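During the second half of the funding period, the structural biology subgroup turned its attention to how the target accommodates small molecules. The most pressing case was pyridoxal-5'-phosphate, which had performed well in the primary screen but for which no bound structure existed. We therefore specified the complex as follows and requested a full 3D prediction, including the ligand pose.
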Amino acid sequence: MAHDLSSVRADFPVLAELIDGKPLVYLDSANTSQKPHAVIDAMSCFLEHSYGPTNRSAYRLAADATDAYEGARVKVARFVNAAKPHEIVFTKNATESLNLVARAWGSTNLSSGDAIVLTHMEHHANIVPWQMMAAERGFEIRWVPLTADGLLDLTDLDRLLDGAKALSFTAMSNVLGTINPVRELCAAAHAHGAIAVVDGCQSVPHMPTDVREWDADFVAFSSHKMVGPSGIGLLWGRESLLESMPPFLGGGSMISDVRLDGFECAELPAKFEAGTQPIVEAVGLGAAVDYLSALGMDNVRAHEVALTVEALDKLKGRFGDDIEIHGSPDASVRGATISFAFRDVHPHDVSQVLDQHNVCVRAGHHCAKPLMRLLGANATVRASFYLYNTSDEIDTLCDALGETAEFFSA
Amino acid sequence: MPGLEDLYREIILDHYKNPRNRGHLDAPAVSAKGHNPLCGDEIEVFVLVEDGRVADVRISGQGCSISQSSASMMSAAIKGKTVEEVRALVSRFRHMMSIEEEGPAPDTTVALGDLEALQGVVKFPVRIKCAVLAWNTLTEALSNT
Ligand SMILES: Cc1ncc(COP(=O)(O)O)c(C=O)c1O
């Protein structure tokens, strides 16, 4: 394994929890990740010693709090190689980031007769905001289909992009694990005069991210999936686009002037940060980014590739035709998120038996119902691995599945 | 922690593997669709009411062992009962699932029979929604009569 796993695990206090005397096997990081001491301590230390308002008051405590909040922005900007810190906008979560793009960018760029392109593997967060706008403005939504292996089928991409204003797609599927060719997709969008919006929720926590190398226009992601706290999300946007867009939410902090007959917007990034911000969460996120950077995102990816190869091998080796793993069998084009059907046992029942072994997996539609329909399933079981998971945990998963098979065949 | 046997009683697994009254009914039967957004379970309940009694009932859809067996046991339990009796049973069942009702307390003398086997679900709160899915859908179907 590419990093010192026992010391990494020791950084995450919840991983030492015992339930009924047995260790916790947390395989639901695609849903939300666990938090290291570094993040927990940074937040409680800030709350104990430095908490105050940001960007509003002149006294020292407020200035320190502002430095901490803005410092987090600088860290995130570096982490994804943004050209400027003010291209990073703090939101509530990635869902809000995507709503921001759909609404603020969409309101000045999309009207009837226009088209945008999404893919069949999107999370609801990258579908519904566009559908809400389309219902108001009457533009068309086109869909990139999938191959049998769960990759994007790009055969007709040029036709789909013809006349489109935006291509919005996930960098990595939260169900299939598929890693999409982000740079090529951004280039294809630009070749047709469309902008490229990337849902980075599942990729940014798991591999190096370079928004400039991607040449994307917007990238949305969430702190809580990358060992940071919940309650804060991120949007990186190309400066020129953020500047040209109207604001998203109105209120305090996002204005430079308000008169009885109107208002003027503040500069970036305040323009998109109305109201009191998730200050403590930003500090925690900054610590999370430091933590990931110290581990090295290449190492995180290498660790997860190794786990993916091993998990796919062991699951297939042990259960053969009793398990149907969705998505590609090739670990080089997928992340460590593994969705599967197990015999004819309903995913909810599988996860119930696994829970008996403290194995935490998600059972359900994973907020991707169009994709589920394509798979012909109402639900799947999803085991997702992260930087703190181990080979032993793969074995525990397999053993618990073995027991599931026994229980439901008896 | 409660064990799996508390949840998956033999009779539940039997109804799951051999569901009763599967299928659908045409008008004049009434029907309703229900789904559990959490896990994607979907169900459709068809009821034919004749002279104030449930003359026939059919269930279609798919879901986990708890939602499917609860639906199957429900279908067996309500056939032949008057609509009044069915309503009392629904409210008794919801009470067993620890669901607070408005209005008068349910009549605890209503016999649950095999349905008692679902009692263990209460120890697994996330599964209560699965167990009551068919019952809520039945109530909706009956409101269409
Ligand atoms: C691919 C993808 N997009 C968007 C989201 C939404 O993220 P959040 O719930 O943090 O807003 C998620 C996570 O659930 C996701 O996996």
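Two results from this model are relevant to the next phase. Residues A 93-95, 123, 125-126, 170, 174, 199, 201-202, 222, 224, 233, 367 surround pyridoxal-5'-phosphate (CB under 6 Å). The first strand of chain A starts at residue 18 and ends at 19.
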